[in-house]
Design brief:
By secondary structure, the chain is α/β, with parallel strands linked by helices. The protein is built from twelve helices and 14 strands. It has two domains: 213 residues, Isopropylmalate Dehydrogenase (3-Layer(aba) Sandwich), CATH 3.40.718.10; 129 residues, Isopropylmalate Dehydrogenase (3-Layer(aba) Sandwich), CATH 3.40.718. The radius of gyration is 21 Å and the shape is globular.
């Protein structure tokens, strides 16, 4: 069995607590002979500032580039609120994403039946929902030049940001989305504002141009404002959505909230695949370091565990184990086992470690049955 290298960067606050549950699953998969994972751990964010004076070291970035994937917890906390902006914990996260060239951000919105009442939408609208949003992460208006706040000759101030995309930037993220759609429901919806923005017109034309390479995927286009409405009106019409950095920021937050709780949301960020087939990848829960509950065994580890399931599927060639982990999460929730953030009447409240144990017990049963 090929050895796979994993870099774990637990980070701050609840980061180390939720990542400890992921580490338990990794150790379990190694012990059972299902995988051969070699794990390296390094601090990131505030923990790295304390240890090394910077939120991420060059050594950690090199380890991340050479690993099959990076699993990150969360960064930040009040302890580092006063440090210089350039070395804030969040700067470590931005730097590792940039250095690894992670241009495609994947955010699934998956509704678990057991948590259907946690959504603000009607159960009938979201039952069975399974959407994947692919957001372009390294281009567009957040990075385009010129940018800044300028003084005009008439004394007014002018704020400027520039939306800019090249064909290669559009193609590479669209190809990631097409390939993901091929492995899912074979439907891709591309969102922009081609009606009012030239960059959107180019986006639409270029996505259409490469669609011929993915004849088994049905491609549609939608204006981003309409997509925002459709996500609330009839979200199940979507399979994979691909969009730019700005619209993706907003639409992925909207879609994730269809499902209820922040403690349940995984994410992945992928780079380009090189000639040898290696692809930089970082997996992390969407939530932050939750200083309000840190150190109390209250954090929901499912977002981190489901992020690890994405890593198994996209970086570690273990899709079937990913399926079993997701099914285990579903089963544990169906049994009414809940961390405080997703607690409901009649359910059993557990802590972070007990939730991790419950997932491993369920996984053990499922994997042994499948063997
Ligand atoms: P947050 O996501 O940390 O917390 C928001 C709320 O959700 C809190 O009430 C928290 O207790 C709860 N929550 C979050 N994750 C949870 C989980 N797994 N289980 C149960 N409850 C959970 O956001 P915030 O409070 O705005 O930020 C706190 C710190 O985290 C800040 O320093 C911020 O910069 C940082 N942050 C980091 C990331 C990241 O590392 N990717 C993302 C967002 C915020």
């Amino acid at each position: 069995m090929a050895i796979k290298n994993i870099l774990i960067t637990p980070g701050d606050g609840i980061g180390p607590e939720v990542m400890a549950e992921v580490s338990k699953i990794i150790a379990f998969l190694n012990t059972e002979g299902i995988a051969s994972f070699s794990v390296t751990e390094r601090p990131i964010g505030g923990a790295s500032i304390d240890a090394h004076g910077v939120p991420v070291t060059d050594e950690t970035i090199e380890l991340g580039k050479n690993a099959d994937c990076v699993l990150l917890g969360a960064v930040g906390g009040p302890k580092w609120d006063q440090v210089d902006y350039s070395i804030r914990p969040e700067a470590g996260l931005l730097k590792i994403r940039k250095e690894l060239g992670l241009f495609a951000n994947l955010r699934p919105a998956l509704v678990f039946d057991a948590l259907i009442d946690a959504s603000t939408l009607k159960a009938d609208v979201i039952r069975g929902l399974d959407i994947l949003i692919v957001r372009e992460l390294t281009g567009g208006v957040y990075f385009g030049e010129p940018r800044g706040i300028f003084e005009l000759p008439n004394g007014e101030r002018q704020g400027v940001n520039t939306q800019v995309y090249t064909t290669s930037e559009i193609h590479r993220v669209a190809r990631v989305a097409f390939e993901l759609a091929q492995k899912r429901g074979k439907k891709l919806c591309s969102c922009e504002k081609a009606n009012v923005m030239e960059s959107g017109k180019l986006w639409r034309e270029e996505v259409s141009k490469i669609s011929g390479d993915y004849a088994d995927v049905s491609l549609s286009h939608m204006y981003a404002d309409n997509c925002a409405m459709q996500l609330l009106k009839n979200p199940r019409q979507f399979d994979v959505i691909v969009t730019d950095n700005l619209f993706g920021d907003i639409l992925s937050d909207e879609a994730s909230m269809l499902t209820g709780s922040l403690g349940m949301l995984p994410s992945a960020s992928l780079g380009a695949r090189d000639h040898a087939g290696h692809q930089n990848a970082l997996y992390e829960p969407v939530h932050g370091s939750a200083p309000d509950i840190a150190g109390q065994n209250k954090a929901n580890p499912l977002a981190a565990i489901l992020s690890f399931a994405m890593a198994l599927r996209f970086s570690l060639d273990l899709s079937s184990v990913a399926d079993h982990i997701e099914a285990s999460a579903r089963a544990v929730l169906d049994r009414g086992i809940r961390t405080p953030d997703i607690m409901a009447e009649g359910c059993r409240a557990v802590g972070t470690t007990e939730m991790g144990d419950a997932i491993i017990d369920e996984l053990k049963t499922r994997l042994r049955k499948a063997a």
